[in-house]
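Researcher: Please generate the 3D structure of the following complex. Treat every line as part of one assembly.
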Amino acid sequence: MSVTVYIPGMLRPRCEGARHLTVEAASVRLALAEIERRFPQLYLGICEETGAVRRHVNLFVNVTNVRDLDGVETALASGDELTILPSVSGG
Amino acid sequence: MSERVYLAIGTRKGMFVAEGSKSRGKFELRGPFGPGVAVYSTLIDTRGTPRFYGSSCNAFFGMRVLRSTDLGHSFKDTKSAPTFPKDDGRALANIWSLEPGPGKKELWAGVEPASLFRSPDGGDSWEMVPGISNHEHARKWNPGAGGLCMHTIIRDGDRVHLGISTGGHYLSEDGGNTFVASNQGVGAGFAPDPYPEFGQCVHKIVRHDDAPGRLYMQNHGGWANWDGPGGPRPDIGVLRSDDHGKSWRSIAKGLPTDFGFPIVVHPDDADTVYVMPLEPMTRTCPGGSPAVWRSEDGGDSWRKLNKGLPKKQSFFTIQRDAMSVDRMKSPALYFGTTTGQVWIGRDGGEEWECLFDSLPPVHCVKVAVA
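Model: Done. Output below.
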């Protein structure tokens, strides 16, 4: 499954400046594993070292937050877009 | 090139560097570096080519370590930040202290949740120090309001002192391989047992090379009027040890309150120590009138230093790493406030002037001459 992963600006220095990556993965978990293999510091910006997705990071498959799907077990199909976004918060 | 005085200022919205001449008349400000991201610890490592460091705590994307090799004109991320082993179960939440290690480029980091990491290469790679990070007490420590943080790392030959909030003081005598809780005389106000083996809310510890065995501690005070189990605990907030931290005694008599966060010692006189007393309940300046207090006799007596500081309507907090003293012939003190000011106290704190008055809330201020 060829999936496009969109990278937010603050994380692009951790993947050689790429705005998006192409990964072969059948689920969000496998996509994250591929990101960890290729860009371990990028992965640590998305997930804690425990493997949990960071509290203030949202992952969307196409237009739906994976929290409203099957979390990191959400299946991916060829052509899907996986978008990494910081949540709206701060001060 | 003549030596310059540098301040590494960590704030809630990034790191700033201030540079001034040895006269310390004016300082020029650079930054923010790592803009918009909180920096809780900074370090100016003057061994060899000076290196400036800052811990950048991004609430979204985790921790980074910032490093400058051009005297704080530009910063880049190191190749990695500390991370717990995957099977550990803990996740890095913050870096509260950065200190030089024994090796030429070695860097030590005290983190949240309270653990110690070592880098052999100036912050590019890290390994957890198991002797304290996996100590039998480690899973029993509890976070204070600021988090479960290792905020103090002091090396003294083979001795290593660590300050943990709330964990207490831990001592290693084998270079950091093994640690024991060393809190005899260190009170706790938030537990029925006023003098537990560990679990104290230590705020900061300092030592001086010229006084072997002596340490000063700002502990979590403000418990003189406690009327619950265990009874009142007056004067547990400011302490001194003369036996390498194996036992501690109060030196708080004479201060307006024994609560505070930072404590610093004069670079040339181990008997001269400075604290910044705060109201225990609000953690702000007593009566709205900030003052640094100085002892010149190792804590037996204290004198208020507030010339030039506001006399009223000032209710800021000075956090644990937000006060430093430089190593010039007539040292100056510096403190940063949660209201975004940085003050200089020239002539050992005799006269104060505001250097910067509109920075983001200040977490830490470190000074070095390079």
